[in-house]
TrEMBL record:
The keyword Translocase applies. This is Methionine ABC transporter ATP-binding protein. PROSITE patterns: ABC_TRANSPORTER_1, ABC_TRANSPORTER_2. Keywords: Amino-acid transport, ATP-binding, Cell membrane, Membrane, Nucleotide-binding, Translocase, Transport. Residues 2-241 form the ABC transporter domain. InterPro entries: AAA+_ATPase, ABC_transporter-like_ATP-bd, ABC_transporter-like_CS, ACT-like_dom_sf, MetN_ABC, MetN_ABC_transporter-like, NIL_domain, P-loop_NTPase. Signal peptide: none annotated. GO terms for molecular function: ATP binding. PANTHER family: AMINO ACID IMPORT ATP-BINDING PROTEIN, METHIONINE IMPORT ATP-BINDING PROTEIN METN. It comes from Sporosarcina jeotgali. CDD domains: ABC_MetN_methionine_transporter (cd03258). The lineage of its organism: Bacteria, Bacillati, Bacillota, Bacilli, Bacillales.
Length: 341
């Protein structure tokens, strides 16, 4: 659907060169919600701007629906842009137009007859839950309502792709959740492919199917959201994951545990199907070892279970060793290091 092939974008500022996007190869499949996450300056916005040719790549290429964007005439580029809707962090609404006027704008531009426009606007406002606000002006709306208008306007030309540029970054957590639900509805009910950028990992967790992590213009990790959350490879990805799930207690607590003569702690990771297998109680019984869950959580991630538990084992050394070996065949398990402060 969208394919970046070794895409790079360099800006020349006086004598200085800034490489905003560096050798990015990525493909976004039709119908998926694909998230790009990175800290400020990672190159996310520039990458998005390459998709609708607001920026041209310095090298490499971008294909949308199999068409190389560089090969398009201005006219075809305008046509393509109508297939790509976009929403923004600061909504970018026309303050002098009503809600209905904002949503109608791209249809007017496209020369759609007046009668059809009003029917389509009514349909779109119903879809985003703002039918009663048609005649209000943006300044009379909350941030969440403004973003709903932004979404309705982006959907007006029935695009195949919706690009979201930090669409929820200006919103409070409850409103963010509402907008993310609406984006999911856009994806599921209208079959629209969504490409979003964010610096918030929980946005990725909530709605994305796949994720790419960017740093210094490069994609440093990419994969399904489940795999990336349960087994992040790059230290930057690990930092993002830790920002929303504290999977280890603090060093202070761990040191206290050890000072009080607590046994070795093991981190046990359960993923997907095996989370429903009572492996811990089954194997500890088999080897005559007691277990104590000290810390952790079992959560839902992408409609699968994901458990992350800190466990200590009480039994004779040989039995514990045999138990650990047996556990390793089913789950991921590692001893937790206690760092001295
Ligand atoms: N038009 C431009 N001219 C010069 N440098 C630019 C331009 N656009 C982006 N850059 C530079 O490219 C790098 C990547 O910027 P970009 O805005 O793509 O990152 P980002 O991940 O979207 O960050 P943020 O979340 O802060 O917007 C930065 O160093 C930025 O200063």
């Amino acid at each position: 659907m969208i394919e970046f092939k070794q895409a790079a974008k360099t800006f020349q500022i006086g004598k200085r060169k800034v490489t905003a996007v560096n050798n990015v190869s990525l493909s976004v499949a039709q119908g998926e919600i694909f998230g790009i996450i990175g800290f400020s300056g990672a190159g996310k916005s520039t990458l998005l701007r390459l998709v609708n040719m607001l920026e041209r790549p310095t090298t490499g290429s971008i294909q949308v629906q199999g068409v190389d964007l560089a090969s398009l005439s201005q006219k075809d580029l305008r046509k393509l842009r109508r297939r790509i809707g976009m929403i923004f962090q600061n909504f970018n609404l026309f303050t002098s137009r009503t809600v209905a006027g904002n949503v109608a704008y791209p249809l007017k531009l496209g020369g759609v007859p007046k009668k059809e426009i009003s029917a389509r606007v009514a349909e779109l406002l119903d879809f985003v839950g703002l039918s009663d606000k048609a005649n209000d002006y943006p300044e009379q709306l909350s941030g969440g309502q403004k973003q709903r208008v932004g979404i309705a306007r982006a959907l007006a030309t029935s695009p195949d792709i919706l690009i979201c540029d930090e669409a929820t970054s200006a919103l409070d957590p409850d409103t963010t959740a509402d907008i993310l639900r609406l984006l999911k509805k856009v994806n599921k009910e209208l079959g629209i492919t969504i490409l979003l950028i964010t610096h918030e990992m929980h946005v990725i967790q909530e709605i994305c199917d796949r994720v790419a992590v960017m740093e210094d213009g490069e994609v440093i990790e990419t994969g399904s959201v489940f795999d990336t959350f349960t087994n992040p490879q790059h230290p930057t990805t690990q930092r993002f994951i830790q920002s929303i799930q504290q999977d280890l207690p603090s060093d202070t607590l761990l040191q206290e545990w050890r000072a009080k003569g607590g046994r070795k702690l093991y981190r046990v990771i359960f993923k997907g199907e095996i989370a429903s297998d009572p492996v811990l109680s089954r194997l500890t019984q088999q080897f005559g070892v007691n277990f104590n869950i000290v810390y952790g959580s079992i959560r839902e991630l992408q409609e699968k279970f994901f458990g992350n538990l800190l466990v200590s084992f009480d039994g004779d050394e040989r039995s514990v060793d045999s138990l650990l070996a047996a556990l390793k065949e089913t789950v991921e398990i590692e001893e937790v290091a206690v760092h001295e402060s």
